[in-house]
Amino acid sequence: MPTAPHPATQPGRRSRWGEHGLAWAFLLPSLVVFVLFIGYPLGRTIYLSGHANDLFGAPSRFVGLKHYSDLLGSADFGRTLVTTALFTLLTVVPGVLGALALVLLLENRIRGVRLLRSAFALPFAFSVASASVVFAVFFNPASGVLNGLLSHVGLGPIGWLTDSRYALFSLALTTVWMNLGYNVLVLSAGIGSIPGEILEAARIDGAAGLRLARSITVPMLGPSLFFLTVVSTVHALQSFGQIHILTKGGPDGATRTLVYSVYEKAFAYNSSDFGMASAQAVVLLVVVLACTAVQFGVLERKVHYA
């Protein structure tokens, strides 16, 4: 009498094991990249944040949460957090709303609209370094374009990058311009995905201009606006290149954000305080996660997905 095959040798079981093996084979390259470039650096950062280091930056002894307690009691670190929050606010709000205004304007049937779309998308082609160099010329106190325009209306020169009252706003203006092209492209794609019959029905009902934008276009752009808000916030919190090129955190720490403070502690001015820099990096990670969680918990509820 034939016996039933053992469950482990059944064809269905073998095929499932084969599928699982194939799935892991496809996942393995991504897992290796994740561990090497995200998992290990994150674990190493947390490890260094709990250790003091010698003059060469090597971890020497375990100090627990001392670095974090020092940060919480530091007035300079509190100022850095405020500067980071203000820079993020000055970058995200004008960047998203400005791109929205431009995209709505470009939707009107005006002459040369294709040329205007290309011009507004042009900043997307500039790297952080090249855009920062261009704005360094604009902000030059002696021969800059902006002070040249002020002189024509009888106003004195302004230290756009050397005066603590204007430096952060100048950096925010540079960052908004750098992100404008990407924001315009995303919102233009969002408008292109709005079904034409919805817009046509709204126009038949008499909606036009601002009413059409407020009642139809902007609500339908909710997913794109939410995406840009989250991405722009993360980019602003991680901004480094333009700060390093234009102000190096000055004057008098007026543009020292959390990312730049990490750089100063770890590498600038022959510093190698990797323990404190790692603690600030962990704080930055917590800030990014908290901002993202709040945005998903508050803003996403108001997003209309078609």
Task: Please give a structural write-up.
By secondary structure, the protein is an all-alpha fold. The chain folds into 2 domains: 9-49; 74-302, MetI-like fold, CATH 1.10.3720.10. It is 68% helix and 2% strand. The chain contains 13 helices and 2 strands. The protein has helices at residues 11-49, 66-72, 75-106, 113-121, 128-138, 145-152, 167-192, 196-204, 209-220, 222-237, 241-246, 258-266, 274-298, and strands spanning 51-53, 59-62. Strands 1-2 form a two-stranded antiparallel sheet. The N and C termini lie far apart (62 Å). The model has no long low-confidence stretch (mean pLDDT 88).
Classification by helices and strands? mainly alpha
CATH architecture of the largest domain: Orthogonal Bundle
Count of domain modules: 2
Q: What would CATH call the homologous superfamily of the largest domain?
A: MetI-like
Briefly, what CATH class of the largest domain? Answer: Mainly Alpha
Largest sheet: 2 strands, antiparallel
Low-confidence stretches: none
Number of H- or I-type helical stretches: 13
Helix content: 55-70%
**What characteristic shape results from the CA principal axes?**
flat
Distance N to C terminus: 62 Å
- Rg from alpha-carbon coordinates: 26 Å
- Mean pLDDT figure: 88
Features:
mainly alpha; MetI-like fold; 2 domains; flat; two-stranded antiparallel ribbon; 2% strand; 306 residues
Helix/strand layout:
Elements: H1 11-49, E1 51-53, E2 59-62, H2 66-72, H3 75-106, H4 113-121, H5 128-138, H6 145-152, H7 167-192, H8 196-204, H9 209-220, H10 222-237, H11 241-246, H12 258-266, H13 274-298
Antiparallel strand pairs: 1-2
Helix pairs in contact: 1-13, 3-7, 3-10, 7-10, 10-13, 12-13
